[in-house]
Amino acid sequence: MGPPYALLPACLLLVKGRKDSILTVAAVISLEKIWSFTMKSPCCKHEMVIQTDPKNTEYVIITGAEKKTEDFDVEDAETLLLPADEDRDKLVDPMYRLEHQEEDLRKKKEAEPVLVRLQRLSDSRHSDDYALNRALRDHLRAIQ
Questions:
Q1: Alpha carbons 100 and 118: distance in angstroms, whole number
Q2: 39 sits in which H/E element
Q3: With contact defined as beta carbons under 8 Å apart, do 26 and 10 qualify?
Q4: Which of 13, 21, 108, 109 could make a disulfide contact with 39, Cβ separation 3.0–4.6 Å?
Q5: Cα 35 from Cα 51, distance rounded (Å)
Q6: Which residues, 6+ apart, have CB-to-CB distance to 39 below 8 Å?
Q7: Within 10 A of 113 (CB to CB), how many other CB atoms are there?
Q8: A Gene Ontology CC term for this entry (predicted)?
Q9: pTM above threshold 0.85
């Protein structure tokens, strides 16, 4: 069994895109290869060594760098907030769903006009790809 797909292709992409990087197999643990790649920083020429961790499906920085973790707010990132474990358990319960079905339908009706408006806007912007492409080419030719 090879390394997880999340790890090996990223390593190879990093190594192939950089001329000064070296990809090696650091270890083999129960038929899983631990990949290690070494590269130099483009700004200060310090050497960085990064290894794959198949058990946790992530990278481990050995030397030359620090892991950067960023916290984000759901609204700032414009993503959906996933329900907590207890909320997921409630959604499976048929009585809970029945009790909250009317509220869910009301929320759906409130959001529907916004979704329809967004769909119409998207359709109007992307309805004729050829005409948009031609207008862009004409504009770029006029600039040159």
A1: 27
A2: strand 32-40
A3: no
A4: 21
A5: 6
A6: 14, 15, 18, 20, 21, 22, 47, 48
A7: 9
A8: U2-type spliceosomal complex
A9: no
